[in-house]
Amino acid sequence: QVQLVESGGGLVQPGGSLRLSCAASGIIFRLYGMSWYRQAPGKQRELVATITSGGTSDYADSVKGRCTISRDNAKNTVYLQMNSLKPEDTAVYYCSLLSPSGRNWGQGTQVTVSS
Questions:
Q1: What average pLDDT score do residues 92-101 get?
Q2: Is residue 88 classed as helix, strand or coil in its secondary structure?
Q3: Contact at 8 Å (CB) between 79 and 92?
């Protein structure tokens, strides 16, 4: 079964940086595209970034230029590097992949951007 475990969240000041990690198991990791989503309190979950099995990335307009998604297939891990963080980036960040059985989610990691 697919398991996704996020880490790396925390409290950071505006303008700061964080790198989130998501470790995957239960799949042939290199064959799947991966995504990062986020959900702020009282808000809908939104797509932040995606990376294909070949390493091609895409980003939501709200984070373009500030975030970089990457993957290390040898470690079965996808990353989200976030720079120039804003209070509006505060949310629970979720790692996700779409398997033949449906979309899979991690438990999430909290990112709080505040002074």
A1: 93
A2: helix
A3: no
Cα–Cα distance between 108 and 40 in angstroms, integer? 12
3 state SS of 74:
helix
Strands (E), 1-115: 3-7, 10-12, 18-25, 34-39, 46-51, 57-59, 67-72, 77-82, 91-99, 102-105, 109-113
- Whole-number Å distance between alpha carbons of 115 and 74: 37
Burial of 89-107, coded b for 16+ CB within 10 Å and e otherwise, reads bbbbbbbbbeeeeeebebe
| Residues 6+ positions from 33 with CB-CB distance below 8 Å | 50, 51, 52, 53, 97, 98
How far apart CA 73 and CA 69 sit, in angstroms, is 13
- For position 101, what pLDDT does the model report? 87
For 24-79, the pLDDT digits (tens) are 999 999 999 999 999 999 999 999 999 999 999 999 999 999 999 999 999 999 99
The pLDDT of residue 100 is: 85
